[in-house]
Specification:
about 450 residues, mainly alpha, 3-stranded antiparallel β-sheet, 3-stranded mixed β-sheet, about 50% helix, about 10% strand, membrane, transmembrane, transmembrane helix
Length: about 450
């Protein structure tokens, strides 16, 4: 397996700023700048909107948090939204996602501990913001497979700093695709969304390009009424940001309260602001893509565990080389024992970003353009697909439930021991007090008896 281009996240502290790019997209005012001059545009402070779920105490600080909105240029000519535009902006989206994750989840954690202790320190043992909500586990399973190295394969994906950044970026992008890019118009009002859905359903048998053209006409008509900004765009950005933060926060809290005591303390507001910038950029790009007539953009994800292809961009050679070294050691041990080891090939460990393809109508047919390749992290897996699928194949939802159950049981025993110790201590204190009172009463009574004996003996002598 060759070593393709590696995507490196930026150094710690980099953040988006509000400079308008040549393509029309503005960056955000961050707490820290990346070397470019800040925008002259004033910040827009708005209270975020929340879904109906009641967050836990840690996230309750977001209720009064004023988020800085990303400055966007909306009234772009449709002719400017071409292949190079989509390619550039989607690459920026990936970069912004890595920046946000690196800024808040890059803390190094020492996880070289015994398997027995995973019940109390496993990242999957953390409580969910909403009880029995396994959305994060479902997303992680859709973009990653258990790590083939280590005794706790699912734990390694989040406990290891290198794997963690790729997994969380993949989760963020997956949620953005499901809730932004897959929408007919991200941020549309309820009536507008209903019109677009009905139109798409009625024209399901029509040519794809004709359907896309008619949809683009309706979308541009809706946008013209509000300066090309969807009427519910920022409400949709706030809502999706909150959903993503709710899924990321248990890992964020786990890093901040790890057994090695992270130097950083959890700050949900800064995390929300960073993710809000990423979601706003993704939503803005999704709206621009839908405005182009006679154009269909397709996103194709690589499945975790599938064989690596030369068209895939591998994003972390070190993880792959560690996997190769482990396999080579195991193969040498098998040969020493007289067993023939199986053949190995590169396979997808984490599917970070999908392949982005654009189909446009042309004379006599269509034109296909690959705007963005599949980006992934690979491991050295068994060539036989069935054998490789059985390697470390443990369902994440069941594993997460097991870790949470073990942690709750440990906490129950610890709290029960403290309660029992407290009861014993109180009983001992009460017993000591009663004993002291009894001794004082006894001594007092004995003193009275002695006084009476002396008094009667004096009278008798007289």
């Amino acid at each position: 397996m060759s070593g393709p281009t590696t995507v490196q996240p930026p150094s710690s502290g980099l953040h988006l700023n509000t400079n308008l790019s040549s393509s029309g997209q503005a960056n955000n005012n961050g707490d820290e700048q990346d070397g470019t001059e800040p925008s002259k545009q004033p910040k827009q402070h708005v209270l975020i909107r929340h879904p109906d779920e009641d967050p836990n105490v840690a996230l309750s600080t977001l209720k009064a948090f004023k988020v800085d909105r990303l400055q966007c240029v909306w009234a772009l000519p449709a002719s400017q939204i071409d292949d190079s535009f989509v390619r550039e902006q989607y690459s920026k989206l990936l970069l912004y996602a890595y920046r946000a994750i690196h800024r808040h989840f890059a803390e190094e954690v020492n996880f070289a501990i015994t398997e027995e202790r995973w019940a109390s320190v496993s990242p999957w043992a953390m409580r969910h913001v909403i009880e029995n909500d396994y959305t994060l586990e479902e997303y992680v399973e859709s973009v990653a497979r258990p790590h083939p190295v280590g005794q706790s394969p699912w734990d390694t994906l989040l406990a290891s700093r290198r794997e963690r950044r790729h997994v969380l970026v993949a989760v963020v992008l997956r949620m953005l695709h499901e809730h932004a890019f897959d929408e007919l118009l991200f941020g549309a009002s309820r009536d507008q969304a209903k019109i677009l859905r009905n139109q798409d359903r009625d024209l399901v048998s029509a040519d794809a390009f004709k359907r896309a053209t008619m949809r683009a006409e309706y979308i541009n008509m809706f946008l013209e009424r509000n300066n090309y900004v969807p009427s519910q765009f920022w409400a949709a950005v706030d809502d999706l940001t909150y959903r993503i933060v709710m899924q990321l926060y248990p890992t964020y809290a786990w890093i901040s309260t790890s057994w090695r005591r992270s130097r950083r303390r959890s700050n949900p507001q800064k995390l929300f602001q960073s993710i809000h910038n990423v979601v706003a950029h993704a939503g803005w790009l999704a709206v621009q893509i839908r405005r182009v007539p006679a154009s269909v953009v397709v996103f194709d994800w690589a499945a975790p565990g599938e064989r690596w292809m030369p068209t895939y961009k591998h994003c972390d050679s070190e993880i792959f080389q560690q996997s190769v070294s482990r396999v080579e050691r195991e193969d040498e041990e098998k040969r020493r024992l007289g067993r023939e080891p199986p053949s190995h090939v590169g396979r997808v460990l984490v599917s970070i970003a999908p392949r982005v393809e654009r189909y446009a109508a042309a004379k006599g047919g269509r034109v296909r353009s690959v705007l963005h390749p599949v980006r992934c992290v690979c491991y050295y897996g068994i060539e036989n697909e069935a054998m490789d699928a059985n390697t470390g194949n443990v369902g994440l939802r069941g594993y997460s439930q097991l870790m949470k159950h073990r942690r709750e049981r440990r906490e129950f025993y610890r709290v029960g021991f403290k309660h029992a110790f407290g009861v014993v201590l109180v009983a001992w204190v009460v017993w000591m007090i009663m004993l002291a009172i009894t001794n004082i009463t006894t001594l007092t009574n004995l003193g009275r008896v002695e006084v009476e004996k002396i008094w009667w003996s004096g009278i008798w002598r007289k």
